[in-house]
Each structure stands twice: as structure tokens, then as C-alpha cells.
Amino acid sequence: MEPRTLFQKVWDDHVVVQEPNRPAILYIDLHLIHEVTSPQAFTGLRERGIKVRRPDKTIATMDHSTPTDPRALMVIDDQAKVQLAMLESNCEEFGITCYPLGDSRNGIVHVIGPERGFTQPGKTIVCGDSHTSTHGAFGALAFGIGTSEVEHVLATQCLLQRKPKTLEVRIDGKLMPGVTAKDIILALCAKIGTGGATGHVIEYTGSAIERLDMDGRMTVCNMSIEAGARAGMIAPDETTFGYLVGREFAPKGADWDAAVERWKQLRTDEGASYDKTVTIDAHTLEPMITFGTNPGMGMQINESMPTADSFDDGSQKAAYEKAMRYMGLEPGRPLSGQKVDVVFIGSCTNSRISDLRMAAGVFSGRKVAEGVRTLIVPGSHDIKKQAEAEGLDRIFKEAGAEWREPGCSMCIAMNGDNLEPGQYAVSTSNRNFEGRQGKGGRTFLASPLTAAAAAITGQVTDPRSLLLS
Amino acid sequence: MAKFTTLTSHAVPLPADNVDTDQIIPARFLKVTDKHGLGDSLFCDWRYLKDGSPNPDFVLNEPASQGAQILIAGDNFGSGSSREHAPWALVGWGFRAIISTSFADIFKSNSLKNGLLPVEVSPEVHRQLMQAVNLDRTTKITIDLPTQSVTGLGSLEATFPIDEFSKHCLLEGIDQLGYLFSFDEQITNYEQQRT
To answer: What is the pLDDT of residues A362-376, one digit of tens each?
Structure first.
């Protein structure tokens, strides 16, 4: 047999039908749904009078429009209330398991999938959310879909898909202290741009990736979409199996042993080729920060922002100048020392226990700078409980940060958590688009370490200056 | 889905690169539970001033843009979120086709399912179209799906790629879910083999 890539193996295993000059009919093992991108799909089913084909392969949670204020959980606007109630009634009508607001298993969709053990190597996983790429950290083929496709999967458990190309992102070497998984993916976005991986599935390989824990691998795969990729994947290994063993929906006993044997085959074969390869030397990476209005506009934290003249291409120059105007920043200057108003630590990119531990290491024994609002939003109730058992919440609260309820929070700003116009935020989320964190808000994307450092000093700060002292 | 064969219209030029779906339709409008009525919120944060009145400097508000069915956008249009609300909003405003040098994957897939044609042209053709439309906003462009061609500026004639299946579905107004259903037996066989 021809040597195959990890992607090719998972793809081949799920093709139900491949007719000439037609997209493949691809079987979906796990369909995650949430309140925002599913209502119109259920309406479609109802109008056609059809059922959900595999409610047993469908899981629902509420995360995007749920409030995270612990004092006012029930105070949400009427439209969000209707949307949340609709997800609950749709799930009841069609027999789908739902983890509603307030349920102890509720959390961000891309956090609870892995946490409960639904996410497993070799599965095809979809969700009406572009950050579904997160689940690729387990060697699954996982990608975001639109609402029409949500309806397709609900109705047939299949999708029409054209086979994407493959891009290997090889990252060898050791990360220096203070440099994290988030810095890897921000460096990749800066290197290849927001459209750099369009049409491709990325496979992350190399010793730096192998050394990452699952939380770090999820951070990397999560932002594959920010480089335009359809999905990001990492071959499963002992780290993956160690994370999954004993989880609620992971196989048990003899099934577990058989599954691990099967999962061990999910590696790119010697001699298999990718359509493209990009390499990054982990040793040369530094903490990263974005300065513009897409995740590709990033740099090492101690660098200066580009000058407008450094762009040869006219439309790139215009885009850069537009971004700088929106951000209220002067090209050519450093970002270090830039005053910040808000720090947000959370989102499907960086709200897991390792992220919170990293942040707590910086907050411990220190105070948040005066005038800085700091939100720390765990990705799920399980993570919240774990953090509280470790006393991390006390560290955050004693520092003067807000310890919130789980949810997407200020990453999507449709739930009551948002920036005010003109405010600057250092955020561990995934998008710095205009208005993403609130109309007129300005976002610098960075790691949990860099975000925590900004909270303490009130300005953009190299976190290594706080780690060493 | 609405059929798409040939479209002749004046166009709206929006030269910015990397226009993401948060600009096309900001997240705060995603609390709706149906597909309709999003046209009024299209490009909301660029289109309206703080007091809610139309921003006269935004191209969509110019009299010359009214009634246009073609948007000429910058490179990598539709990046970011998977929200199908983006094509719903564009179609809601009245667009039927978008011309760019490239599109984000999920946006392209969502557009094709809503009768909104993504037309990918070379940077040179894009430059000529943008220039001509900026010079004369009444310039008519014709997009012909059967021949996969863009014409209208004197001698300019460009072709654009589209996969055969999507083309077929647009030309016939075929709903992809109906097509998927025709493979019910194969799907059942696949499920049985795997258990």
C-alpha cells in the first residue's frame, strides 16, 4: 500500500461514496452543536419533516451567548434567552444530549468535547464553529461547518466534502522558558498569513509538538483556522492516550486496549508526502503578540511594528495602514509599554487548566495594575472546579482579577462581556478582528503568560521579566 | 436554493483585503433564530455611525451602490468564523456574486449553498475590474456561470474556476441535502460495516 499521511488515513476511513467529479460523501463520527449556529438547521429538519439520523453521535452545549458573571447568571437579553431555550427544546424534540447553562458538564464546546472523552483519535468531528480544528490535537479530522451543513449532518450523519490538500508544519527544537504553544501558533500565523493555509489541512509534526501537553496541542490546532487551514492535526501518542484514559466517554477495559492499538496506526507513514511543508525552529521563538486586526499581524513582543513603507504590495500597505488607524497605533514603534485597559484570559484557545496554572504563576503574590479590568474565564465547570481545588481562584481574586463562570465570554462579545469603544485588551483568545471583542475595542492576542504580565504591569510586557524576578 | 445562470449588474467596490466574517456580520447579530432580515446588519460597524445613521463615507451607502448585485472585494474575503449568517446577510442585502482573488474555505462553501457565487479571478483581472468600477460606478459586469466567464469591460474576458458539482447545483437550483439523501442505502451499509 502507498504510504499515507495521518490526514489521508482518517479521510479514507470515512469516505462512504466517492463518485467521479463529485465531492466525497464523508461520514461524521461526532457532531457538536451549540445555540448560535443550530436553530436554522433544526427549522430546516422540521420543515422537511425529517429526524436526526444519529442523535447518539450528537452532543449539544451552550457557550457563545451565555453570561459568565457569577452574580447575575440569569440576566441575559431576551434574544439570547430565546436562542438558549430553543437549543434546549430542539434537543428534547430530537433526542439529543444537551449540557445546558447551569449543568455541571456545561462549558465551551471545544473544551468539553475532549474533557468528557468524546473527542478521540481517528474520528471525524464537525461543529458549526470554525475553531472545531481544536479537536485535531487528538489525531481526529475536525473542522468547522456552516448551518446548512449542520442540517446535512443532523439529517444524514454525512457531509459533501472535496478533499483538501495537506500542509506539514514541522516544529523541531525546544521552546525557551516563557514561550508557549500560543506563541508557536501566533508565529505560524505571522509567517504564512491568515490565508496561508487556505485549502489545506495542517499536520503539526516535530519534537516541539511532541513535547507539548494536550492543552498546548489544542491551543495550536485551535488557531489553524486563523492561518486559513481547514483543520489542524497532530498524530496521537502516549501523551494523547494518557489524557484520554479513564475519561467518561473514552473506551474502557478491553475496548480501551483495542482502541489504543488502532490509534497507534494513526501516524504519517515513512515516505508519505505532503503538498507543502513549512518549518519553524522552536528554539528561536519568543513570546508573540499581535498588533493589527487579523491574527497574521503579529510579531515577537520586543520587536517594533512594521513601517508602512516596508510593504511592497499596495493593497497590503493599505490594509496595514487601515489596521493601524483602527488600533490607534503608530507604525514603526514598539508595542512593549503600550497601556492596556482590559486583560482577558479564556476562550477555546486558552481556558484550560494548564493555561490557568501558567497565568496563576504570574499573578501569585502580585496585584493587578490599577485601572486594569482582568477577566479569567475557565473553559468548563470541570476546569473551574479543578482550578478551585488547586487554589488558583484565590490567587486570581487576591490579585484583583475577576473569576468568572465558564463560557466564550469576551472572545465573541455577544454575552454581556465586551470591550468598550477604544479600549485596549491583551487577550488569550484567537481573533483580533475589528470589533471582535466589542464594537471599537482593540485586541492584542498573546499567551496566558503575556496576558497575565500585562494585567500586573498595566501595559504590554515581556512575561519573562516577571518570570525571572 | 435559488438558481444561478447569468447575472449582469453594476458592482460595489470594497478593496480591503482579509475582510472577515465579523465585519460582514458582527457576532452580536448572531442571536437570531432564522435566516432572514440580516441584510440590514450587513457590514454594520462600517455602515452606520455611532448615532445609528448611515455612514456617508461607506461605499454601500452611496447612491451608486443601490441595486448592485455584485461585490468586488479584496483578497481572502470571508476569513474567520464559520457563521452562515455572513452569506445570509450578503444575500439579504441583494448580492448574488462576489468577485475576489481568493476566498476563505468555509465562507466559500456556505456561499455556494445560498445561491451566492464566489468568483475567483487573477490579481490582474481583479485590478482592471476594480479600476473600471471605481472610474464609472454604472459599469455593468456580466457573470455567466455556464461558461464560467466574467465580461463587460470592452475586451476584458476572464474565466473563473468552480467545481463541477457546485456549478451543477447552482445552475439547477439543487438542494445538496436532497442529493445526500439519495445515498441513504450506502450510508446505512457503511454504518453496519463499522459496528
So the answer is: 999 999 999 999 999
The answer for residues whose C-beta is within 8 angstroms of residue A204's C-beta and 6 or more apart is: A169, A170, A171, A217, A220, A221, A232, A233, A234
Report yes or no on B1 lying in a domain.
Answer: no
Strands (E), A28-164: 30-33, 58-61, 97-99, 124-127, 141-144, 158-161
* Contact assignment for A43 to B114 by CB distance below 8 Å: no
Between B31, B106, B177, which is nearest A130 by CB? B106
Write out pLDDT tens, residues A249-277: 999 999 999 999 999 999 999 999 999 99
The single-letter code of the amino acid at A305 is M
Using alpha carbons, select from A349, A387, A406 the residue that is nearest to residue A108.
A406
A334 within 8 A of A357, measured Cβ to Cβ: no
CATH of the domain at B57: 3.20.19.10
Domain for residue B86, yes or no?
yes
Residue B50, C-alpha cell as written in the block:
455611532
- Counted residue by residue, chain B has a size of 195
Please tell me which of the candidates B23, B102, B110 has its beta carbon nearest to residue A146. B110
> How many domains does one find in chain B?
1
Name every chain B residue with its beta carbon within 8 A of the beta carbon of A156: 177, 180-181, 183-184, 187
| Separation in Å, CA A203 to CA A155, A166, A221, A274 | 30, 7, 9, 9
Closest C-alpha among A323, A293, A321 to residue A445: A293
- Which residue range is the domain that position B141 belongs to? 6-193
How far apart, in Å, are the Cα atoms of A46 and each of A94, A145, A282, A324, B85? 10, 20, 51, 47, 20
C-alpha grid cell for residue A162?
A: 472535496
Contact A124, A10 (CB under 8 A): yes
Q: Which residues does residue A141 pair with via DSSP β-bridges, in sequence order? A: A124
- Using only the alpha carbons of chain A, give its radius of gyration: 21
Amino acid of residue A23: P
Q: Is the ipTM of this complex over 0.90?
A: yes
B44 lies in a domain?
yes
What's this model's pTM, rounded to 2 decimal places? Answer: 0.97
Chain A residue whose CA is closest to B180? A156
| In a domain? residue B38 | yes
Which grid cell is A446?
Answer: 498573546
